[in-house]
From TrEMBL:
<protein>
    <submittedName>
        <fullName>Zn-dependent hydrolase</fullName>
    </submittedName>
</protein>
<dbReference type="InterPro" id="IPR036264">
    <property type="entry name" value="Bact_exopeptidase_dim_dom"/>
</dbReference>
<dbReference type="GO" id="GO:0016787">
    <property type="term" value="F:hydrolase activity"/>
</dbReference>
<dbReference type="InterPro" id="IPR002933">
    <property type="entry name" value="Peptidase_M20"/>
</dbReference>
<dbReference type="InterPro" id="IPR010158">
    <property type="entry name" value="Amidase_Cbmase"/>
</dbReference>
<comment type="similarity">
    <text>Belongs to the peptidase M20 family.</text>
</comment>
<dbReference type="Pfam" id="PF01546">
    <property type="entry name" value="Peptidase_M20"/>
</dbReference>
<keyword id="KW-0378">Hydrolase</keyword>
């Protein structure tokens, strides 16, 4: 494999971005469509046969000596959040491309077919829903739910599909069958600091955490900040802050399970310096790979809501936004990745993924695994996100070795 060629791939793909800081390549936009078309050309130059399915997933296939055998596939996504870095998702796609290029360079033939998949709409930034492409491919996409999705400009998902030459009413046709796949594996940047701090080159993912999310409304009373004594107040901001701190404390008590809790959205009304806040709104994300641990944090949130309402005289209610189950990676795939790392003398760690990925949907219907490469200072969803080409190349070598084991060299 060629490091300079991999670097050039990143440089070229990074040119496909809308205005703004970092990378802005949202799902189903013209910019993302142009990036997909660029990738299709690169796959075709590498000798792959490419098709786009009914969800907008790009599937690039390198045929095996026995086309009837199930495929060994890899892939990720190239759509981004707002003001993203160059590596999130893109790393898995471009490493997959480089693996395919290297096999063509060396005239290596495999028994099983190989695929690189670019999944559509992995990020939730545009429509508030994530991993739509892999959900469609694995038969987990709810058609009724997709019809309700709209972006901040009022464009529906159905309209976005039409702009991309797709029909949302046909998205169910993107579903594939279990016996089509021997394995699916995804390479991704870690998006955390563990590998860098442990000086490990590869993270072998054991499970993918899943979130349960809530919206919490805190109702208080707007009062004059100068004339209302402290013990007469019903301050919605302070009540909300107390609940947020309770989430933090509950998650800290679950450190050994890796469960985390985050208040990622917090707003107050009326938002004036001289007025005691009358209302606060917050969105809470609690996630982990251990369901019992996650539930303990949820229970702590529920208890905090009740206690704060009573002690501060506030009207507080919470409603669920979403709930997903953690996903275990295939034990055989995990073991084989570990063996590949040992054979190559590569330091690896077995670790969970705190973020969701397309692999969690693929795991529902075929043997699935994931590997991480380090993220500098753990930064991701950030223009400063960085993984060196050498670290990416190490991941590519591990991925290639695994795929050749599975696909069997002729």
């Amino acid at each position: 494999m060629k490091l300079d060629r991999l670097r050039q791939s990143f440089e070229e793909l990074a040119k496909f971005t809308d205005e703004g800081e970092g990378i802005n390549r949202l799902a189903y936009t013209e910019t993302e469509r142009n990036a997909r078309e660029y990738m299709i050309r690169q796959f075709e130059k590498a000798g792959l046969v490419v098709r786009t399915d009914y969800a907008g997933n790009v599937i690039a296939r390198r045929e095996g000596s026995n086309p009837e055998l199930p495929v060994v596939a890899t892939g990720s996504h190239i759509d981004s959040v707002y003001a993203a870095g160059e590596f999130d998702g893109t790393a898995g796609v471009l490493v997959g491309l480089e693996v395919m290029r290297s096999l063509a360079d060396e005239n290596i033939e495999t028994k099983h077919p190989l695929e690189v998949i670019i999944f559509a709409c992995e990020e939730s930034s545009r429509f508030g829903a994530s991993t739509l492409g892999s959900k469609a491919m694995s038969g987990r996409l709810d058609p009724a739910y997709t019809r309700s999705l709209t972006d901040k400009n009022g464009i529906t998902l159905m309209q976005a599909f039409e702009e991309n030459g797709l029909d949302l009413e046909e998205v169910h046709l993107a579903m594939r069958f279990q016996d089509e796949f021997k394995a699916f594996v995804e390479l991704h940047i870690e998006q955390g600091p563990v590998l860098e701090r442990q000086q490990a080159a590869i993270g072998v993912v054991s499970a993918i955490a899943a979130p349960v999310r809530f919206h919490v409304h805190v109702g208080g009373t707007a009062d004059h900040s100068g004339t209302t004594p402290m013990d007469y107040r019903h301050d919605a901001l302070l009540g909300g802050a107390e609940i947020a701190l309770a989430v933090e404390q509950a998650a800290l008590a679950e450190l050994k399970y890796g469960t985390v809790g985050t208040v990622g959205v917090f707003s107050i009304q009326p938002g004036a310096m001289n007025v005691v806040p009358s209302a606060s709104e917050m969105d809470v994300d609690i996630r982990g790979t251990n369901i019992e641990s996650r539930q303990r944090v949820v229970s702590a949130l529920e208890e905090a809501v009740q206690d704060v309402a009573e002690t501060r005289g506030l009207d507080i209610w919470m409603e669920p936004i979403s709930s997903e189950d953690p996903v275990q990676m295939d034990s055989g795939v995990v073991k084989e990745f570990q063996e590949v790392c040992e054979e190559r003398g590569v330091k690896w760690l077995e670790m969970p993924s705190g973020a969701g990925h397309d692999a969690m949907n693929m795991a529902a219907f075929c043997p699935t695994g994931m590997i991480f490469v380090p993220s500098k200072e753990g930064l991701s969803h950030n223009p400063a996100e960085y993984t060196s080409m050498e670290e990416l190349m190490e991941g590519a070598e591990v991925m290639r070795a695994f795929m050749l084991r599975q696909a069997e060299i002729v």
